[in-house]
TrEMBL record:
The keyword Transmembrane helix applies. It catalyses: 2 a ubiquinol + O2 = 2 a ubiquinone + 2 H2O. It comes from the Eukaryota. This is Ubiquinol oxidase. Its main location: membrane. GO terms for cellular component: membrane; mitochondrion; respiratory chain complex; thylakoid. Binds 2 iron ions per subunit. Its EC number is 1.10.3.11. Belongs to the alternative oxidase family. Signal peptide: none annotated. It is found in: Membrane.
Length: 245
């Protein structure tokens, strides 16, 4: 039921954005990034509320979700530098969708964090597919275009500690190359894949999310290692074997 409700919500949002922005890719990407960073604020708002009441205290979730929203924020800056936010009406629509999305995510997280994480996993999955299609359709043009300075700064000279924090799958430090606009969009797409992995992991019962910088950080289970069924349950034998390894 949770998945189907989320699929319906995503379907409505995607239809609205696609119809409004049409073939204007950078404006559409700006709208997607405006919306994509909102759920992390929703999660942190609820978690801070729980902390205030003394019901919950797990800093790793706050650290990772903050790093995720900062990653999406830099995606937003990249799209702005490419002209995606030039029209007032484009900003107006994206911002109001984001406000509605914030409260939807807050409500879902209060009812069931798993439900909210699944919604965001689907959003990130759509974003990944969107960027991947854009890369395939525009490879030559993108490779001939210089990268915006904000992308070079973020991926090669910025706060690399914070950049590493949202990449919760333990596979070593990721240090992107940014030689052209194609590289920029490859890394934006790959960032969305990292968000998908984290959101998928957060839905698994009994698993505690760990910040990559935490001394207790575990190797997170990839979807290829242990499949999750329709009820978000993971095979216990597979899970135990992966953690032990």
């Amino acid at each position: 039921v949770e998945r189907r409700v989320n699929e319906a919500l995503i379907g409505v949002a995607v239809t609205v954005i696609d119809n409004l922005y049409g073939g204007r890719s950078y404006a559409r990407f700006h709208a997607l990034e405006t919306v994509a960073r909102v759920p992390y604020f929703s999660f942190m708002s609820v978690l801070h509320l729980y902390e205030t009441f003394g019901w919950w205290r797990k800093a790793d979730y706050l650290k990772v979700h903050f790093a995720e929203t900062m990653n999406e924020y830099h995606h937003l800056l990249i799209m702005e530098s490419l002209g995606g936010a030039e029209l007032w009406k484009d900003r107006f629509v994206a911002q109001h969708i984001a406000v509605a999305y914030y409260w939807i995510c807050v409500a879902q997280y209060l009812v069931s964090p798993r439900w909210a994480y699944n919604l965001l996993e689907q959003v990130e999955s759509h974003a990944y597919a969107t960027y991947d299609g854009f890369l395939n359709a525009n490879e030559e043009v993108l490779k001939a275009t210089p990268p915006p300075s904000v992308a070079v700064q973020y991926y090669t000279k910025g706060d690399l500690y914070l950049f590493d924090e949202f990449q919760t799958v333990d596979r070593g430090e990721r240090r992107p190359k940014i030689d052209n606009l194609y590289d920029v969009f490859v890394n934006v797409r790959n960032d969305e894949a990292e968000h998908m992995k984290t959101m998928e992991f957060c839905q698994r019962p009994g698993n505690g999310l760990r910040s990559p910088s935490s001394k207790e950080a575990m190797v997170l289970l990839s979807k290829d290692a242990c499949e999750v069924d329709e009820d978000f349950q993971v095979d216990e034998d597979c899970e135990k074997a992966s953690i032990a390894a």
